[in-house]
Amino acid sequence: MFTLQESITLFVAVVVGGLASLEGSVLGAAFVILVPQLVSGARALVPVIFGVAIVLVLLFEPLGLAGRWRRLRAYFAHWPFR
Hints:
This protein is an all-alpha fold. It contains four helices and no strands.
């Protein structure tokens, strides 16, 4: 059984990482693991950071971190000619 907090954490990982991609799963999991570690002094801010991250990803990067990673990889694949 999942608690509400675990369900929200998994939702954050999926949305921020990106849907239907292996890179998105890895990047979303890394985000969910690293954020609480980086703000360990202010544990109460973790849900706020997750909420802001969801809103920002949905507004500015609909494909998540995986979409950003794909574009960055394509840019450097053709880098000298751009």
